Structure formats: C-alpha cells, structure tokens
From TrEMBL:
Residue ranges crossing the lipid bilayer per the database entry: 33-57, 108-128, 153-172, 236-255, 261-280, 301-318, 338-356, 363-386, 392-410
Key words, A-Z: Membrane, Signal, Transmembrane, Transmembrane helix, Transport
Record membrane topology: Multi-pass membrane protein
Similarity annotation: Belongs to the nucleotide-sugar transporter family. SLC35B subfamily.
GO terms under cellular component: endoplasmic reticulum membrane; Golgi membrane
Record's subcellular location: Membrane
Domain of life: Eukaryota
One Pfam family in the UniProt entry: UAA
PANTHER family registered for this protein in UniProt: ADENOSINE 3'-PHOSPHO 5'-PHOSPHOSULFATE TRANSPORTER 1, SOLUTE CARRIER FAMILY 35 MEMBER B
The name this protein goes by in its record: Adenosine 3'-phospho 5'-phosphosulfate transporter 1
Source organism of this protein record: Neopipo cinnamomea
C-alpha cells in the first residue's frame, strides 16, 4: 500500500513556480493522482444514485404512468420533451447573421470588438491561471507565503459564474424550446470538469507555453474521438496538419536541454495530466456535438453543462471538507480572491464572446483569432514569468501555428467547394 506514494514522490515535482518544491510530498493529499481519485469518488457519489434513479423511471415507464407535481421535472430530466432534429445540418453552431445592408465600417468595428474581447478575456485568463497555480500568496521577508493547491475549487468558481451568466442570458433572450433530457448534459459536464482540473493541476509540473502547445495539438485526439464516438471521416489535409502539429510539439518538447531553467522542464506528471486534459476535452466536444442534434442554442448548452458542473464540484468539495478551507484561504489572501473572481469573469465572458463571434463571422474567423491568441499567450507568459525557448523550440512553435493556419485555410476552401455540391451529396464532416 506504500508503493503508490513512493512512486509518485520519486517523480519530478513543481516544475513551475518561483521555487523548486521538495521532491517528497508530506501527505497522501499532496499526490495529484490521489486527489484525482478522491474527486472522482465524490462525483461517483452523485452519478451512481442518479443513474439508478434514471433506470428506475425508465423501467417503470414513468412517462406514461407518472403523475403529480414532480412529473414535469422528472420528464424534463429523464425523457426530454422533443424528438431529435434529424435534418439539422450543423446544430453545433447558431445560424450566422448575414450582414445585410451593414456598412463595411460597422462590420470592421464588430470584428475588432470580437477580436479584442476574445484576446482580453483569454489572455488575462491565461496569465491569472499561471499566477494562481504557480506562485505564492502572502509572502513577506520572513514568511515564504503559501500556495493555493485545490484546483477543483477554481473549477467550481468558474462554473458557478458561467452558470449564472448563461441562466440570465436564457431568461432575458428568446431561446428555442428545449427538448434534450437534462441528464445527458452530465456526461459532457463530468468530462469538462475533469479536463479543467487536469489543466490547472498540470501547471504545477509544466510550463505554460508547453500547456498551450498541448492544447493546440488536441485536434489529433479530437479526430480520434470523432471516429470512435461520432463515426466521422476526415480529409487527407486534416491528417497532414495533424502530423505537422505533432512534429512541431515534439520539436518544442525535445528541445528542453538539461541546463534549462527548472521551471520549463516537462515532467512525467505534467505529461500525464496534459494527456488527461486532452482526452477529456476531446470527449466533451464530441459529446456536445452529438447533443446539438436536439434543438438548442449554444447558451442553453452552456447552461445545461454548468448546472451539473456546479452540482458535481460543490458536492465533491463538501464531502472532502475542502470548500470551507478554500473560503478560509480567500479570507486570508484578498489578492487571491480578486484573482479567482477575475479568472471566473474572464472565463464566462470569453464563452459569450465565442458565441457572438461565431454567430457574426463564422467558425473560420473565430479559429484564426483564437490561434493568434495562443501565440500571444506563449509570448506573454515568457515575458511575464521568464520562460525561455530555444531556437529548436521556437521552430517547433512556428510549425504548430503554421499547421493551424493551414488547417483554417483548407477548411474554408472545402466549405466553398461543398456549397457547389449537388443537393444529394454531403460534404465530409470535419473537426
């Protein structure tokens, strides 16, 4: 029973941050793998009873035999109210508003507004994410300060604000009639929570530029998940760009020399956490894509996923007693409170900017803006936190972003060509 902590303790730890953390951990709670299983157990305590209830209502044929004040709630949660929209061509995106009788200046202003909003939201979010997870709070000349270690609480903060914003938006604007069974959001919610947790935890072991490049390379597992979950097929250029991204990321990771600063050394734990982030995030996007076959708006999707995210995270935090401890940490360090709140605001606003940008200009323009954001995020992190990049690593970064832009260009060409296809033919689905 002592093998697991000894193995984990032998791994390089805390590759980011101002100081190198001790190689050995003090307690079971300091091991990321142990925390992962504890969090998963907390989610299971909600998921398992929920699964049993759903099976009970389905076996009992509650849709036809049920009565009483609870009937509408149970029907909405377990059965839904509408059949799938089979003929929906691309349910994952709202219908794009055509700029009819809109001046060029107005369109340019909207584009600049979207680009500025996305860059400000996600660049600030990235800088704060690295600050919260890798630096100490309350440090003085005599006291080294303390680090905030509970990634799940940060996930909860992000989700509770996103839930509030999406709920207000749905209440104040006209939305399609909702038909999906509510429980189906829980799958995307669970994978989304786990991917976010892995993302925060990974920053304790790897540098932020490495994490950004790993996010850029997630198109590869997304394609794999698309084949497994949605049975999608892909064009040759998609495989080519995926291979280029793999080469670029490999160049960056292998360029880490032994004499490099310890804060940029990728550790085994960080690689495992990044792999977990990419796998969970790939499942989330594909499951959401399948859910969009029901008639719903992206904001309704945001609301449904975050309802379960809040339920899972707050339940797990309360079971572990970590919620009060995190609140005490906030009370001790007002700077952390400001950072955590601003982190959540940037995350929620960023999601709304995503929906608005795609609605106004389409997915291609949005992808270009977000690709530029990733490049700016690496540059900003290197300037603020002193990460160093070798010549080979810089070439690797260039290859990755060249592949991403090539991907956007090829996709736009394919879209134009698909519009000229005969009515009976359908274009190949792409990620």
């Amino acid at each position: 029973r002592f093998c697991l902590p000894l193995v984990l303790a032998s791994l390089p730890t805390m590759a980011t941050g101002e100081e190198i953390a001790p190689a050995l951990q003090d307690s079971w709670g300091d091991f990321w793998l142990f925390r992962f299983f504890v969090n998963a157990a907390g989610y299971a305590s909600i998921v398992v009873p929920g699964f049993l209830l759903i099976q009970y209502f389905k076996r009992r044929n509650y849709l036809e035999t049920g009565r009483g004040i609870c009937f509408p709630v149970i029907k909405s949660c377990v059965f839904g109210s509408e059949v799938k929209s089979v003929h929906q061509e691309d349910g994952s995106l709202p219908p794009r508003a055509e700029p009819t009788e809109s001046s060029t200046a107005r369109q340019i202003f909207k584009l600049l507004f979207c680009a500025a909003g996305l860059q400000a939201s996600y660049l600030t979010w990235g800088v704060l994410q690295e600050r919260v997870m890798t630096r100490t709070y309350g440090a003085t000349e005599t006291d080294p300060g303390e680090k905030f270690t509970d990634s799940q609480f940060l996930v909860f903060m992000n989700r509770i604000l996103a839930f509030t914003v999406a709920g207000l938006y749905c209440a104040l604007t006209k939305q399609p009639r909702h038909g999906a069974p509510m429980y189906k959001y829980s799958f995307a919610s669970l994978s989304n929570i786990l991917s976010s947790w892995c993302q925060y935890e990974a920053l304790k072991y790897i540098s932020f530029p490495t994490q950004v490049l790993a996010k850029a390379s997630k198109v590869i597992p997304v394609m794999m998940m698309g084949k497994l979950v949605s049975r999608k097929s892909y064009e040759y250029w998609e495989y080519l760009t995926a291979a280029l991204i793999s080469v670029g990321v490999s160049m960056f990771l292998l360029s880490s020399a032994p004499n490099r600063h310890v804060s940029t050394v990728t550790t085994f734990s960080g690689v495992v956490l990044l792999a977990g982030y990419i796998i969970f995030d790939s499942f989330t996007s594909n499951w959401q894509d399948a859910l969009f076959t029901y008639k719903m708006s992206p904001v309704q999707m945001m609301f449904g996923v975050n309802v379960f995210s809040c339920l899972f995270t707050v339940g797990s935090l309360l079971e572990q007693g970590a919620l009060l401890e995190s609140v005490r940490f906030m009370a001790r360090h007002s700077e952390f409170t400001a950072h955590a709140v601003l982190l959540s605001v940037c995350s929620a606003c960023g999601q709304l900017f995503i929906f608005y940008t795609i609605n106004q200009f389409g997915a291609a323009v949005f992808t270009i803006i977000m690709t530029l954001r990733q490049a700016f995020a690496i540059l900003l992190s290197c300037l603020i936190y002193g990460h160093t990049v070798t010549v080979v690593g810089g070439l690797g970064i260039a290859v990755v972003f060249m592949a991403l832009f090539l991907r956007v260009y090829a996709r736009s060409r394919m879209k134009k060509r698909s519009k000229k296809l005969p009515p009976g033919e359908t274009p190949v689905q792409k990620v």
